[in-house]
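Help! Submission page says 'invalid entity' but I think these are all valid:
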Amino acid sequence: MNRMNGPDGRKGPHPMPGTWITTRAWLLMLPLLVVMIAVIGWPLVDTVRLSFTDAKLVGTAGGFVALDNYAKLLGGASFQRALITTTWFAVVSVAAEMVLGVLAALLLNQQFRGRTALRALMILPWALPTVVNATLWRLIYNPEYGALNAALTQLGLIDSYRSWLGEPGSALTALIVADCWKNFPLVALIALAALQAVPRDITAAALVDGAGPFNRFRYVIMPYLAGPLLVALVLRTIEAFKVFDIIWVMTRGGPANSTRTLSILVYQEAFSFQRAGSGASLALIVTLLVTLLAVAYAALLRKAAGAS
Amino acid sequence: MERQNPLFTAFVYLSALLLAIIILAPLAWLFVMSISSAADLSAKPLNWWPDEIDLSRYRALLSTIENSAGAAFVASLLNSLKVAGMATLAAVAVAIPAAWAVSRTPTVSWSLYAVIATYMLPPVALAVPLYMGLAYLGLLNSVFGLALVYLTILAPFTTWLLKSGFDSIPREIESAAMIDGARLDQILRLLTLPLAAPVMATSALFAFLLAWDEFFYALLFTSDLRAKTLTVAIADLAGGRVSDYGLIATAGVLAALPPVLIGLVMQRALISGLTSGGVKG
């Protein structure tokens, strides 16, 4: 490094050594670093330490038990079932959000009256707090007075009211619908911004060349959509894998643990049963899975960036 | 051309109508529930529009009579405002210098990736030690303690947003002022920060909405009116034995109002903020 260069590599009348620039940057970052170490770094390290102990949440500090927590969890049925439930929730809800989001974006990219207003509406589900969304859908699914039962009965689609969230067969699907409704508009807005970056003359040229709707989407529009959609896919999958709020408010993991995802399981282990050590090791397994997802996606993103 | 095809036009309008219904129907129903009487809501077949508009629950929830449902609701509303406000201020305060430094100093830009990586951490990975730490400091069930915990989410997030904001301000302006003999603090105070004001406002707004929405930590670390936030209060209502669904809906409408209004008014800024990460990638 040229020690006499300024911040942008040019020699100015006030030459500043590169080491001072770097030191100054670290000084400016110091408050953030202190905060991050206090509220993220230290707790993370302590979670690792706790995961090797049988500590309780309150009272006993616990003794060292090596890998016992991990062995018990990984071999246990509740972890395996929660992993499957979480994966199913994440895959189905994110896939549905992507498809619905792209379809809505393709629609909003057309010229029609009321388009601006409709685009403004898309911000509403995103802005609605997650807990309010969960509460709203819990009321809609209500087995005795819910709007879904009323609507389906009045349309003649079902004979009697059902307990959508009370049946193990339908609870997870009902949750996925509620989650999709809140999150597909965000995917739509991201996809719409990408669609608007497609140059008009390229689509016009493809049309003149006789490309059908499918080929135009696949070869003309998709290259513009792929990058932004992949980023949305990464963020949404990671969010969906960590899901807690909507499930806690709507079903608390029930009925019969049919909607118990990994985050719910951690909550129960560490806070309901107060097993801090075992809860910490479960939390770290979840963290590891999320990290693996993120790394896999990062590789995918890099490959996509290289291809285009 | 496809656009002139009347069938295609009809298809576009029908789809637009369907999309509008999908988005609006659940929200409209939340509002209708909040103004319907309990009898209307439990009628079979269901009354989709109340015979008489009933605003009593809005009055009940916004009343401050002691020990009423309203007092509890208003207290949780104030707690949410306090926690989100404090956490946002603190996050922006530590994020501004850090984001500027990362934006202007290529040698430390790698540290931003470490900051962003923490944003992916599931909250459960930090929850147990944070609980024990707050208990040790006597900060469980306190708005201050919860605001501190919210920095785990807000600090990396605002730093990331502000960094891309500073990136869009040409550094040549700063270099020019430096050549003219301005000191760094003068440059930042008089030049960069005023230019970055819109980005800082958007980032603060995003951070506030994120804190307003937060539920997991609030559920764990608060237990009564001294610190319980709105999200926890609503979850309590929804999960409890409240027989009046209209009251739950009203609490939902009131909690949703601030972020929804912010969302509608700030639409343009929010959409560009939401999509910039996706489009640049």
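Support: the input was valid. A stray whitespace character was the problem, and the output above is from the cleaned input. Chain A touches chain B through 109 residues (CB under 8 Å).
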